[in-house]
Amino acid sequence: MGSKVSIGDVVSLSQGFAVNSKSKHLMGDSGLPLLRITDLINGTEAQYLTKETAPTKCIAQKHEIIFTRTGQVGLVFRGREGVVHNNCFKVIPNEDLVTHDYIYWTLKQPHIIKLANSVASGSVQKDLNHSAFKSIDIDLIPKTVQEQNCQILNRIEEKLILNTQINQTLEQMAQVLFKSWFVDFDPVIDNALDAGSDIPEVFESRVERRKAVRESADFKPLPDDVRRLFPSEFEESESGWVPKGWETSTAGQELTVKGGSTPSTKNPDFWDGGNINWTSPKDLSDNDTKIMFETSRKITDAGLAKITSGLLPRETVLMSSRAPVGYLALTKIPVAINQGYIAIPESRRLSQEYILYWLDSQMDMIKGLSGGTTFAEISKKTFKSISILVPPCPIVEAFSKNVEVYLNKISSNVGESSLLATVQSSLLPKLISGELEIIRSGK
């Protein structure tokens, strides 16, 4: 076990860059990204300063720790390079006493985040000044123990990051496959080129791109059994040229569309002690994948009785229909929904995987159809009018078979990450306080 010290005894702080009328002229279209809180959370870049104009003390290297101090107090980041915004500061360890890893993990502890918010000033918008931050008490353990204990936390974090990256790659692979088969019609164009069939002029640019792909050294054609599922000709339909034998329909004709509601939150009979999953789009706002495993709130049987759509089955496709439009998920649990969703528990001729990635591919158009004065919303009536392409069942089944592999791996990774995050949360305070000490075995 270690001792208690004020964090100001072992770190110094470097304030971020203030963007105002006097400094705005330093901003540019390229250079070092300005790291605002929203950029740190979302991994985005929107504004820049050149290396020549950015104050050196505000520049963060990848190993440096950034702590948010205004608005959202207590978020901790590392691994980003750029110019720290004024709503954050860099936390610079005294390396004679503490390691970067130890301070990073110390600040990640929930009770430290809670303390930071409690000493921040402001009722409308929290603001944490340097003096208040430095007054926070932390554990201090020997530096050799810091190094050993933090290795465990770092390895868990690295695995969590790797799982997220793998899931993002798998998600992109599913999106690319849908676009190739059902938007660009690559297999149909391949078959048409091989058969010498006429290809409509509207596809001229796609044909040229496809010829270049087919001539590249790393081109891998579809397996013969899959390729034979696709036609080698196009035909004209009401919505334009489509592969021969494919149909155009509407969401209302093909999909079962459900809405939901919120049982009165003033009636505890609907909520207290409930064990039935109930979801609002908020559950998807922080979701890294298109898979739903759990909901933040539960309702009782009495609450469920107030929702006309009832309990929807596993493998229901969910799309948030307002505030904002466009979150997507495939449920792996039975779930009841609130009024912020359009739910698709089943369809006439299409698979749930096809529906999920059809929605993803059409999202810009769906958002464009959304109305509303206070916030964007797409009604079930408008949604049902949207045109949808219906390929033959064997092609849909072949697509789903491929995508199921990706989604199953994503599900496995999410489960592993959930377990690792639980272990990490349990170990964190014990490793930082020195209650647990990792002993290296000798060789």
Automatic annotation (TrEMBL):
InterPro entries: Restrct_endonuc_typeI_TRD, Restrct_endonuc_typeI_TRD_sf, Type-I_RS_S_subunit. The keyword Membrane does not apply. Keywords: DNA-binding, Restriction system. It comes from the Bacteria. One of its GO terms (biological process) is DNA restriction-modification system. GO terms for molecular function: DNA binding. Residues 4-172, 243-394 form the Type I restriction modification DNA specificity domain. Gene3D superfamilies: Bipartite methylase S protein, DNA methylase specificity domains. Belongs to the type-I restriction system S methylase family. This is HsdA. It comes from Vibrio sinaloensis DSM 21326.
